[in-house]
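So, is this right?
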Amino acid sequence: MPTRILIVGAGAIGAFYGSRLATLDDVKVSALCRSNYKAVQKHGFRVESPKYGASTFKPEFVYGSPDEARKAKIQWDYLLVATKALPDVNDDSALLEDLVGPNTSIVLIQNGLGVEQPYAQRFPNTAILSAVTVASAAQPQPGVIQHNRWTRISIGPYLPHLDSGGSGPRPDTDQTFTERTTRLVSLLQEAKVADAETYDHAGLQFVRWHKVALNAAMNPSSVLSGGSTNQTMALDPELSRHLAGVMQEVLDTAPKILGRPLPSHLATPERILASTRKNTSGSRPSMWLDWERGSRMEIEVILGNPIRMAREQGLEMPRLQAMYALLKQAQIIRDERQKQDRQHENARSKSSPKL
C-alpha cells in the first residue's frame, strides 16, 4: 500500500515539500487548496527551484474544500498542515475533522509557538508531529511555486507530557509517534531533501523557540519601522542592538520553559545578524508583507504565545511585550480604518446616479 499524504493549505511551502514527496513511487500526494484550486486542478503545480530545477507536480487528488476531501473517505497516513497560524481568527484544526483516521499523523509546518495545542485538544489520540522549516518559497501566481533557497525541515513528535511538570512518559504511544516522525523524515531524505532532520520533543521545541527568536525580532521590527528590509535593520546601529536584545530575551527564556539548557548548535544572535548583514536581496519579513496587504499577521503565535508561556512560569519578556502591545493595537486600528473605508465606498456606490 502506498503512503498517502494530504497537503492542507497547499501554498508555497506545502506544495514545495509535497512536490518532493511526490517523486517517490510509493507515495501518493494530494492537495486541499483554497484560492489556487482551479489552477491546480487544471494544471497541477509548476515548481521552479534553483536546487531541483523546473518540474510539474500533479497531485493524485485536488480538493477545493474540506467537505470534498471528507467525501473521498481516504485513509491518510500524513496530513501536512501548512496554513498560516492565526488562532485569533480561526481554529484550523477544525479543517481536519473526519479526515483523521486511526493511523493518521498530523504534521504542522507552521510558524510560532503553541501551534500544536488546538490539534492535540481536538485529536487527543492522534500523533502530532511538529515541524519547522527555513525553506524560502513563494507562489507568485496560482499554482506556480518559486522555491528560492534552503530546504531544511526539522520534525519531532509533540509530546508535551514530557515537559517539566508534565505527567511523564507514555510508552504505549510515545514510541509509535516517534517512529512515524522517523518514517516521514526518511521519505523526505529519499526525496532528496537531504537536510530533513529528526528531533525528540524537547529538541524540536528548542528549534521552534530559536526560529521564534528570529521571527519575533525581525517581523514586528520591520512593520514598526515602516517596512525596513532585513539587511537595513541589521546594519542600523540602534535597530541591530534592538534585534539582538529581542533574540537574546527569547533564547534566555526558552531553557526556563523547557527545563533544559539551550543546545549549543543553535546560532547566536550575533551570528544571525552577521549573516543578515550580508543579505543583499532586499527581502523583508513576511509580517511586513501581510501588513502592506492589509492581511492579518501572525502576532499571537510569534509574540503573544511566548509571552503567555513565560508568564505561566512567573517570567516576563518586556521587549516582546512592548512590540506585542504596539503591533496588536496598530492592527486593530488598521482593520477598523479598512472597515470604515469599505463602508464609505459602498455608500458612495449606492448614492451614485445610474446611467
Notes: The two ends are 64 Å apart (CA to CA).
